[in-house]
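Module 6 notes. Inverse folding takes a fixed backbone as the condition and produces residue identities as the prediction. Think of it as a translation problem where the source language is geometry and the target language is the twenty amino acids. Below is one complete input and output pair. Work through it position by position during the lab.
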């Protein structure tokens, strides 16, 4: 499979470096890494450039001007640059378990998108990880908030990686889909500005178009480094956009991916 890994980032190069390094430790490497940068400072650009010089797979830096939280636009631009037939999205504060890509590849089936899980790394362990430059999980996973998500099991994955029809738990920090399905619904809706709901709305349009959801459990772990929450000041407006998509069973957004192919 030709898999493009898209990593979103904004002004946290220390976490991004850990995330990028974890990609190189994969049992199966992606076709390419696309860094979807929502307007970071030049030090992030320099980090990506240096990483790309030694990376065994191409590294593409997709940057846009910093005009506030515009993750929908940033992801669309990265998807437009991606060459893979299958796309995995993670955030730049996610450190990947070594079989992350392999696990996602095993559960990639036509007609489905995949919602993965994340392991929440607590503040102290996150700070220690950033200082040391690598994630070393302590005995009994001390410093991890949801320990069960650390467990990787082929048997449990088969039992619990089930289909779902709802939007609960949609998070694009560990999320995979076929590129052709994203094109069919015109990608992420760029009406979303500010934190919240652009991922759920994208998933809603995928499901409205006939793509089914599958949750990936006990496989494909991503370790999420702790950070302060983003501002929720646009959440009410973003909720209204999501609700319209659900109520009207919308499959297409007007301001989306197609503008990057003109």
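Target side of the pair, the amino acids:
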């Amino acid at each position: 499979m030709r898999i493009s890994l898209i990593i979103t980032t904004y002004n946290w190069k220390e976490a991004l470096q850990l995330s990028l390094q974890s990609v190189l430790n994969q049992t199966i490497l992606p076709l390419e890494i696309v860094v979807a940068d929502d307007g970071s400072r030049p030090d992030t650009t320099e980090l990506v450039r240096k990483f790309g010089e030694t990376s065994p797979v191409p590294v593409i830096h997709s940057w846009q001007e910093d005009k506030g939280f515009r993750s929908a636009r940033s992801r669309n631009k990265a998807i437009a640059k991606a060459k893979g037939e299958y796309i995995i999205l993670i955030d730049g504060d996610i450190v990947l378990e070594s079989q992350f890509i392999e696990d996602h590849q095993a559960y990639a089936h036509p007609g489905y998108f995949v919602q993965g899980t994340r392991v929440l790394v607590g503040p102290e362990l996150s700070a220690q990880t950033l200082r040391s430059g690598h994630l070393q999980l302590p005995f009994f996973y001390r410093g991890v908030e949801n320990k069960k998500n650390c467990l990787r099991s082929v048997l449990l994955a088969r039992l619990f990686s089930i289909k779902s029809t709802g939007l609960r738990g949609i998070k694009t920090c560990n999320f995979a889909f076929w590129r052709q399905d994203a094109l069919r619904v015109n990608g992420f809706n760029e009406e979303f500005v500010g934190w919240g709901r652009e991922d759920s709305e994208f998933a809603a349009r995928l499901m409205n178009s006939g793509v089914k959801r599958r949750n990936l459990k006990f496989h494909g772990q991503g370790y999420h480094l702790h950070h302060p929450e983003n501002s929720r000041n646009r959440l009410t407006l973003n909720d209204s956009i999501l609700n319209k998509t659900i109520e009207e069973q919308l499959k297409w957004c007007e301001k989306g991916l197609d503008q990057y192919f003109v």
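Reference fact for the lab report: The longest helix spans residues 42-54.
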